[in-house]
Queue: 2 jobs
Job 1
Amino acid sequence: MGASKPFRQQLRLLPVVPAVLLLLLFLAAPVLWSFHASFTNAALTGRNARNPAWTGLDNYERLLTDSAFPASVLLTVVFVVASAIVGQNLLGLLIAGLMTRARKPVSAVVGTAVVAAWVLPEIVAAFAAYAYFSKDGTLNQLLAGAGWSGADWLYAFPMVAVVLANIWRGTAFSMLVYRAALADVPQDISEAALMDGASGWQRLVFVTLPLIRSSIATNLMLVTLQTLAVFTLIWVMTAGGPSNTSTTLPVLAYQEAFKFGDIGYGTAIASMLIVLGLVFGIAYVRLLKGDKR
Amino acid sequence: MTTTERTARQAAGGRLTPPKRRPRSTPADAALLLIGACFLLPLLWLVLASLDTNAGYQTRLPEDPSLTNFAAVLTPELLLRPLWNSLLLSAGTAAVTLLAAVLAAYPLSRFQSRFNRPFLYSILCGTCLPITAIMVPVYGLFVQLRLLDSMPSTVLFMAATALPMAIWMTKNFMDTVPLSLEEAAWMDGASGLTALRTVVLPLMRQGLGVVFIFVFIQTWGNFFVPFILLLSPSKQPASVSIFSFFGQHGAIAYGQLAAFSILYSLPVLVLYVLVARGAGGSFALSGAMKG
């Protein structure tokens, strides 16, 4: 053991190498390649596939002038805010809150139903949602039973359909986070507030929510990121249509790259998403750091 | 709060203090059941259509319920090969991920180093990378490196995408194994990796199981990655081969589609129940989320 101390300390880090190699080769490299390819006219087939030429900021200029991109950004924001930040988050909190008051078996059964939609393979969930919202699907049958005539949801209101489907699919995550958070809230604090005459709402707003605020922040961050990346659900249900009225950014990037064969433009859109993801990632890390004092 | 503290406190709370809870209320039960029904409704079609030989997208009770659809999809080409491919992909990915994660988590959990914090925070950042966003560049990269349509490279890619979360979870589970036991092994002359194998890993079996199943479920259900990276039908997993019920044979075979979906979903449902039962609900999640 003649090796010097610093060297031996370096040696201890050796087991990290396989993980680092995997991450560099399959995550970092595509990210870097994405930024590089977004400055070229790389194509799926043909001459530009073999020898892509450097085109500078052309793709990014096109992002700004192409009307599909701003529309897609707006749809993505609507999708994330409506289905993740409002839908999944509030519904998850509501379910977790109700579970603290409901009987045990009821909580268990309902918890399983909510989680089932989340554990299913995404393609199966997407087909189930497609069938549910289709013209003669379950939803319209239910509405007809109540005496209302439904709509052809997937064509007339594609965003409503995919937002609801994503709430159905993803609420389980928020529910599990909030169940764990609420289980950590000490019972006596809530009881003390009850003694002081605080109403149910006051206890929720002034006692419970401040106590679980770090869980709320973490959850918001994670569901936002998960929803930002949703592709399969939208692609199966509406394929981004009709006429791009439900094309969020992942769907747009896929279409440009694989349907129209423009890898350069597709990677430019992908790069914007990656940057967005990294911004959220850094914010998330700062949040956790602050959390640990 | 670490997982140990949490579980210890829950255990203590469960045993020492009498279960003094607010009275359970009926309105909350009713509201929950209503929500639960809404969540089950979209799955109703799946179950009913799978038993109906003339199924469409309408939800209705089958006139003549039978298992014909299940029998029809139970062929090597339609069901068994895709499921086998799914199994290869998922088990391979989970195994590679777990191996790399355990190796990486060990020094991060046991030795102080300047390298630890930046590494862990980049890992955490990596969990935030939207994977669907990198599929276009990954496709481009795979074309250039001639890795397209290869099972091993798809497994390695999926392992890399699962790795940030897996390292984070594994490290948190490993932190709960007390250091003193290992020090004893070191005293006896065991090297770091021997101590890891003989002392630490057996003690965190449950955590390792959670990580493995977590990655397995995620890979089993993944559609987009194999859809982009695996081209030949003989290599495609069930999530992609499901499209053979569309188009190719003309009309869509709704009943068979539903039956196939159910058979394809069952394994992950069973695995999830295993984890939830064995590890107590939010345990897996607490490993993932608490630092």
Note: Residues 37-182+213-291 of chain A form a domain with the MetI-like fold fold (CATH 1.10.3720.10).
Job 2
Amino acid sequence: MTSETIPAIELAIPPYPEYLQLVRALVGAAANSSGARSPLGPGRVADLRLVVSEAATNAVEAQGAVGARDRIVVRCQVAEDRVLVEVIDHGPGFDPDAVPDLPDVETPERLRHESGLGVALMERIADEVNVESGSDGTTVRLVIRST
Amino acid sequence: MWRERDKVQFDLHRRDLSPTDGVVGRASGAGVVLTVLGDLDMAGAPALRQAVVAEVSGGTRLLVLDLTAVDFLDSAGLGAMVGGLRRLRAHGGDLMVVCPEPRIRRVFESCDLDRVFVLHPDVGSVISAVAALGEQASL
């Protein structure tokens, strides 16, 4: 981590979907912070909000699956050329390489799958996605760059 | 001083398709427009699912989902739409999507779901598409 232009911010939310909007608002505000020259244009801020929402949604789902009430921690750092976000949960963990591919979108089978898009969406939109997962939880690190 | 928040977190407005949408003849009254307001995410998706179930149970076969006023969409919202489309089709119906905002269209495109849902610029475009399908079917 070099040349952060504002200090990292941190938010700890109860593991419920109603708090996802708050996470997006906080991270979006940090990326647009008037105290720092934002490295991201409006389109990339929208991308940032999307990938953060995906990571936080996965965290809420993971903790919901095992009834873990620990708070989910979201950290955000804005640097000159990129925004870094970490989402940390206390769910049961998962193997990101074991997430099955969805059927082709043009087959009828695709309509049977209402979930499973989040990781693929993060990987497609974020510049970097790093997942560390174990039996005590998962940390997802996302980087969105200016270009 | 405390102020009510201005932003809607999530809401759904329902109305029947009407002649002002360009619906004429037999198709009149045969469809419903659900306008989604706010954020269609994990928090909003259950309400959308319930609404689709209620519409299909009530006999709706053409459901138009108007996303013009959606501020945010992610994969949880898309999942509810995929489930809705499956439900409508299983009952011989269809779910059509109005989505003029490039920012929201990009989410569909990022998941290749713009190949599953035709994204119409307005309700009138949906009506034209349905009418064209009806003509094809009657040929």
Note: The first helix of chain A runs from residue 20 to 31.
